[in-house]
Amino acid sequence: MAGQNWTNVDIRVPRPGQGEPVVIEVNPMPAIFLPPTYDWEDHTIRESFPGGHPALINTLIASHMLWRRPCETTKAVGEEFDNFSSTYDEAVEPVYQHFRIFSSVISRINYSKGTILELGSGTGLFGRALVQKMQQITPPESESESSSESGDEAPLSLGPKKKTPQDRSFDLTGIELSKGMADVSQKTGAYRKVHIGTVQSIIPTIGPFDHIVAFSMLYFLTPEDFTMTMVRAFQLARKSLVVSIDKIPDAYNEKLIKSGPPASNMVGHNHLSIMEKMFCNPPPNGWKLANKQQHWGWKSPSMDIEVYLTVYIFERQT
Ligand SMILES: C[S@@+](CC[C@H](N)C(=O)[O-])C[C@H]1O[C@@H](n2cnc3c(N)ncnc32)[C@H](O)[C@@H]1O
After folding, report:
1. Which of 86, 199, 217 to mutate to test the pocket of ligand 1 (most atoms within 8 A of CB)?
2. Which contiguous run of DSSP H or E holds residue 136?
3. Where does the source fall among the domains of life (predicted)?
4. What is the tens place of the pLDDT at every residue in 50-96?
5. 10 C-alpha vs ligand 1 centroid, how far in Å?
6. Domain that residue 291 falls in
7. How far is it between the farthest Cα atoms of the chain?
């Protein structure tokens, strides 16, 4: 779906030992919006395209938009985060609930030995939390003798900004729009690679990964880009998908717009309803919604507005 036309290819697969599969038709204009009584290509979309027909339409629009010039607003968001990158960690620490959220997600999903993709990886707070948590589970040999014998887990914190000995029990890749933010994350040593660019342009051609996560970044995407990103994430993740959906209040956007540029470029989209309708009721085939929890998420110091978010944990059904 990386900006390609929609095409269906029919392949006849003979019984084992009775010949090779043969392509019998390539149809560049398939009938994909048939009334429910017809069960041809539509069946494939209903059964295997995450989010079904509404998600397909949004994905086609998003794919088409990829051909156009990069969006000016997205560029401006990247510049804002470039400017914010050196002070981001200190600024968010008192107003960001994510350390607790990361901790509970990492306790629930077995990331050990897995490949992980993080969308909008920022300065690498999730990666640093992952390193800390893995070290609590299997402390490096030099630390294991001096570690507490009480069995209590140390709480996760902001984590070191400088390179730590890389925990090789997971393989973490990021996608990040802002080069400034990506540079900070790469210095932590928690990420094997951080792709610099937009999630919507990179995710169609990357992967697969065992696990995919996205924390407080999807609200920067348009509804079409959000849908395409979720569709692709469900297709690419082999074991789990964890996303936080920020419930951006109207008052937040109104204040940003009133402030004018550059703040007005940072308006957010509230994707809760798309998320529920397309991806939760029911979840895509082969997936279960293992956990869904609302949290107080963060407070914008400049706008003085609090934002709640819902963390969705999807797991592949075995
Ligand atoms: C609020 S920060 C959250 C960063 C990180 N996930 C965390 O929890 O600390 C949002 C991040 O998403 C990035 N971002 C925004 N739009 C993006 C896009 N279209 N593609 C990739 N990254 C994007 C921003 O540059 C920023 O680093």
Report:
1. 217
2. helix 125-137
3. Eukaryota
4. 999 999 999 999 998 988 777 888 999 999 999 999 999 999 988 88
5. 40
6. 71-140+153-316
7. 69
Which residue CA neighbors atom 4 of ligand 1 most closely? 122
Evaluate whether residue 123 is within a structural domain: yes
Q: What is the pTM of this model?
A: 0.87
Residue 135, pLDDT score:
83
In-domain check, residue 13: no
Among 245, 221, 230, 270, which Cα is nearest to 49's? 230
In this structure, the dihedral spanned by the alpha carbons of residues 131, 135, 138 and 140, taken in order and rounded to 10 degrees, is 110
What CATH number should be reported for the domain holding residue 77? 3.40.50.150
Determine how many CB atoms are found less than 10 A away from the CB of residue 171: 16
Q: Is residue 66 part of a domain?
A: no
Strands (E), the chain: 8-12, 22-27, 115-119, 171-176, 193-196, 209-214, 237-247, 287-300, 305-316
Report how far ligand 1's centroid is from the alpha carbon of 112 (Å): 24
Q: Ligand 1 within 6 A of 248 CB?
A: no
Ligand 1 touching residue 156 (CB < 6 A)? no
**Runs of H (alpha helix) within 242-289:** 250-259, 272-274
203 lies in a domain? yes
> Across the chain, what does the average pLDDT equal?
88
